Amino acid sequence: MVFTAGQIAGILEGEVHGNPEISVHKLAKIEEGEKGSLTFLANPKYTSFIYKTKASITIVNKDFVPEQDLETTLIKVEDAYKSFSKLLEYYNQVKNNKIGIEEPVFKSETATFGNDLYLGAFSYIGSNVVIGHNVKIYPNVYIGDNVKIGDNVVVFAGAKIYSESIIGNNCVVHSGVIIGADGFGFTPNSEGEFTKVPQTGNVILEDNVDVGAGTTIDRATLGSTILRKGVKLDNQIQIAHNVEIGEHTVIAAQTGVAGSTKIGKHCMIGGQVGIVGHIVIGNNVRIQAQSGIGRNVKDNEVLQGSPALNYGDFNKSYVHFKNLPKIINRIDNLENKD
């Protein structure tokens, strides 16, 4: 896709300084910009690159005043970073604006679809599925019986959405995601063997939830596994049965949350965090990467370590831990003097 500086300025409500007819067809970092590319300058430490860049167009803040001659055409906006993000979003919308049903696909006669559907080849749509308006379902997607999907949802190639799952509006489900697989429920019998406990619940994603590639979200044993509105999950995360994640919480890659744990609103959880089951994590909690959480967590706590400690206590303890060999030598020397 090709855009002129004038067209981009119109999208961003910006002002062109240079040639409004110059066009771009790709994006680039400012230090790697070349002819035909669009870049941006938001961080002052990269200012020197604007005088060297070969990018055809550069988005800058309105208060930017060049101190040298420029080869690039400028588009001045209120906030260059936000405007560039807006442009990326617009680009994705245009790029992904597919409509129509490819062949072959399987669609149950009892499934219903809204307007502006895109259904990629080799997809399967089960019985009594309800799909809203402007939904994009890429090839090789499986959607089981009785699934409900809201408006403006994107389901990328190879995702699997098991029966009874409910997906809200404006959600994004990336490739390889599995929503609604059985929870890890087994009970030992008298002979020490494990018998499966039927998993009869479902998964609910509220509005504006993003699920990263390869992430798995298990159905509840009874009731629902719930991701509240605005939750963002990175790639390769495991969410177990009956977990509930509060509004606008974000979780980084390779984190695992065990069954029936409740996580509050506006939490930030780092990568490779392990969280045990049947606990409650409060609102506005921060958990550093590779921490292990084995207890209830109060609102606003910041934790690190395994088992996790208060972030400040962890750092104080770590100072002593890394000096432990020296401390032991000092103790040995003192004992030898006696």
TrEMBL record:
Reactions catalysed according to its record: a UDP-3-O-[(3R)-3-hydroxyacyl]-alpha-D-glucosamine + a (3R)-hydroxyacyl-[ACP] = a UDP-2-N,3-O-bis[(3R)-3-hydroxyacyl]-alpha-D-glucosamine + holo-[ACP] + H(+)
Pfam families, per database record: Hexapep, LpxD
Superkingdom: Bacteria
Record NCBIfam families: lipid_A_lpxD (TIGR01853), PRK00892.1 (NF002060)
Family classification: Belongs to the transferase hexapeptide repeat family. LpxD subfamily.
Species of origin: Maribacter cobaltidurans
Active site residues of this protein: 241
Enzyme class label: transferase
InterPro entries per record: Hexapep, LpxD, Trimer_LpxA-like_sf, UDP_GlcNAc_AcTrfase_non-rep
Sorted UniProt keywords: Acyltransferase, Lipid A biosynthesis, Lipid biosynthesis, Lipid metabolism, Repeat, Transferase
CDD domains the UniProt entry points to: LbH_LpxD
GO biological process: lipid A biosynthetic process
Protein known as: UDP-3-O-acylglucosamine N-acyltransferase
GO CC term (a single one): membrane
Pathway of action: Bacterial outer membrane biogenesis; LPS lipid A biosynthesis
Protein task: Catalyzes the N-acylation of UDP-3-O-acylglucosamine using 3-hydroxyacyl-ACP as the acyl donor. Is involved in the biosynthesis of lipid A, a phosphorylated glycolipid that anchors the lipopolysaccharide to the outer membrane of the cell.
EC number, as in UniProt: 2.3.1.191
GO molecular function, one term: UDP-3-O-[(3R)-3-hydroxyacyl]-glucosamine N-acyltransferase activity
Subunit structure as annotated in this protein's UniProt entry: Homotrimer.
